[in-house]
Amino acid sequence: MEKTRVWIHCRVSQHGERCLLEFQENILRDFAEKTGLRIVGITNELSDGKNLNSYECQSMINYICRKRVDVILCATRKRICIYDDIFEEFEMLCRMKDVIIMTLRDIHPIQHIMNSIL
Asked: Is 118 exposed, middle or buried (0-12, 13-18, 19+ CB in 10 A)?
């Protein structure tokens, strides 16, 4: 059986927040590895989050459109885009391509359940 394919998306707005970028990636990568997800891509982006025009976001969107990813993992939905309408367009694309967007808020309860089982 093929593992669920995940793209990890991390973004901060300023160079001074590089440790937050690393924190996001470490938490999300750890979750993916512990739950047996196959990481197919990682975005580490320094941007204001006002659009999805960066090379990194376009690479992620390309994977979504080609149905090469099943889940997008991110810290919060604002890490994808700070504007609700642009996020909703992204969410609509994901739904059309059967891609789930998961945030740390979605993951946090799952981690507690998994830790109690393991």
From this structure: exposed
Contact between 99 and 71 (Cβ < 8 Å): yes
Assess contact for 11 and 49: CB atoms under 8 A.
Answer: yes
Task: Indicate the pTM of the whole model.
Answer: 0.86
Radius of gyration of the chain (CA): 14
Distance CA 37, CA 2 (A): 10
Reported as a single tens digit per residue, the pLDDT across 9-64 is: 999 998 777 899 999 999 999 999 999 999 999 999 999 999 999 999 999 999 99
Q: Strand, helix or coil at 4? A: coil
